[in-house]
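Q&A FORM
Asked by: J.P.
Topic: structure of GAF domain-containing protein

PROVIDED:
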Amino acid sequence: MPSNKFYSSLNEQLAGLLSGERDWLANTANASALLFMELADINWAGFYFLYGDELRLGPFQGKPACTRIPVGAGVCGTAVATGESQLVEDVHQFPGHIACDAVSASEVVIPLFAGGRCLGVLDVDSPSVARFGVEDLTGLQEFARILLNCSEIPPVIPHSR
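REPLIED BY: S.T.
REPLY: Here is the structure written out as tokens.
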């Protein structure tokens, strides 16, 4: 499991990478690449953005993923519906889990809030059961906070299909 020192270094890398760039799309793309490059034993790292009552796939690294996830469905949709981060040791035991990649076994999802509204989620998956712990959750919450602070938050996205 990564240590606090690991996440301190990772989050410093993110702040440096985003320094001088405020574009939301560019920053989420680079953030997902950084996570995929630096985190061991993961098979997916990326973002879903909230459009009305569903999450839509954003920048990511890994295998092709589900394009749309209803709010309240799966781990990502649950994070949005509850407004709380989700740390799931075994996704196959999570009620309503959506298997975008059957190889994924554990997951951590951080909802992204700015200006009193949810923008979407940061999602990281692993093929190993119980890959993520509290240090990962805390480190990735800080990662998301840095991303939000370094980015120009997009306008409200209208519900469209």
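FOLLOW-UP: Strands lie at 44-51, 54-62, 68-70, 86-88, 106-114, 117-126.
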